[in-house]
């Protein structure tokens, strides 16, 4: 009985070793690109003001560099960067992004996150509150 058990364990370990040896490690560039992709896009399309602003700054730097070589392309990159910069400020002011944490008091959720996309009524409430 123990020989049979030992043999089965050896077979399982051999199959596991075969599967593990086929997997190759990604190169340094692939890991870096994977980390950048995860940082920018995360899990799904979580567009936050911070990511938009970071992308806008990166595009401004790219526009300055590319603008020396191809002025028209640099101008287009700068326009896109300005639009992203304005969108990040707009999203930051209106609060159109997913909250990082739920507001809780004594273990209960105090404010439920808005479902769906842009909420016009919430924006109007905020504007009324701000003007008071």
Q: What does this entry show, briefly?
A:
By secondary structure, the protein is mainly α. 70% of the residues lie in helices and 5% in strands.
Can you give a write-up of this model?
The protein is mostly helical and 132 residues long. The chain has a domain at 45-99. The chain has five helices and two strands; from the N terminus they run ααααββα. The chain has helices at 2-22, 28-41, 49-69, 71-94, 120-131; strands spanning 103-105, 108-111. A two-stranded antiparallel sheet has the order 1-2. Strand 1 and strand 2 (108-111) form a beta hairpin. Helix 3 (49-69) runs antiparallel to helix 4 (71-94). The model has no long low-confidence stretch (mean pLDDT 77).
Q: Structural class, please?
A: mainly alpha
Q: What does the largest sheet look like?
A: 2 strands, antiparallel
What's the end-to-end separation, in Å?
83 Å
- Average pLDDT level: 77
What percent of the residues sit in helical stretches (DSSP H or I)?
55-70%
> Total number of helical segments?
5
Strand content: 5-15%
Q: Low-confidence spans: pLDDT under 50, at least 5 residues?
A: none
Give the strand order, joined by hyphens, for the main sheet.
1-2
C-alpha Rg, in Å? 26 Å
Global morphology: flat
Instruction: Count the E strands.
Output: 2
The H-and-E topology, N to C, reads as HHHHEEH
């Amino acid at each position: 009985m123990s020989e049979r058990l030992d043999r089965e364990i050896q077979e399982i370990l051999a199959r596991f070793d075969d599967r593990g040896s086929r997997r190759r490690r990604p190169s340094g560039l692939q890991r870096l690109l994977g980390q950048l992709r995860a940082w920018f896009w995360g899990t799904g399309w979580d567009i936050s003001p911070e990511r938009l602003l970071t992308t806008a700054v990166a595009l401004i730097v790219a526009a300055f560099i590319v603008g020396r070589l191809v002025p028209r392309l640099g101008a287009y990159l700068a326009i896109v960067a300005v639009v992203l910069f304005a969108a990040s400020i707009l999203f930051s002011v209106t609060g159109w992004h997913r909250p990082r944490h739920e507001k809780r008091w004594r273990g209960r959720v105090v404010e439920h996150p808005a479902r769906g996309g842009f909420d016009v009524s919430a924006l109007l409430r905020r504007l009324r509150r701000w003007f008071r």
